[in-house]
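>> received
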Amino acid sequence: NNLPEQAFPHLKYAESCAEKVYQDRTNRIFGKINNKTGEAWLKKLRPVEAIQSANKSLTGILPGFKPDSYLDNPANSLFYQEVTIAEALQVKARALEMLYAQKKDNFLLEKGLECLDGAWKVNSMIRENFIYQSSKLSIQDDLRYWDEMALRLCRTLFEKTNDSRWADRAFQVVERSKAAILLDALKENLALQRLATNDLRFEEIARL
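>> returned
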């Protein structure tokens, strides 16, 4: 497949153009380019390079993230409402799963789960600010994909270790997903009620 190979010079050119426009390397456009570079490495079945690209994205848009190892992940306290962060974590999670297929090291799957938890956290923060249903549905699609991947990693870890904590972790993923959908629906319903009745219950839900 030559498509990934063809992508690299275009991505390099995009980066050089961005450097001429933006003085600050923390600008999200550099993160976007690095994420696409990581995806290209994934298509070439080069997970280590994909992880490095994702880390380059994360260290750019999260200046407080200073990894000592390419497996290190950013702390949740560094996250803010930026979809590029979630995209980088998703690329890294996919790369870690691919690297596991090559090395059979369970620790790689554990780090992949960390990435997916982080991506979920970021997108949950973003979801709070979306008004339009179409935007929320798009985010829900992302969350559903990440949950499916998280469940797959949990199942693999459980099968390899017979450690019940991975079954518990899978259950938490399912419950988290259901809770997010229910909370969104409840907020929307109470928002409509509030328009007519100024119901104070909406304020309580909004603080959740």
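>> The chain has a mean pLDDT of 86.
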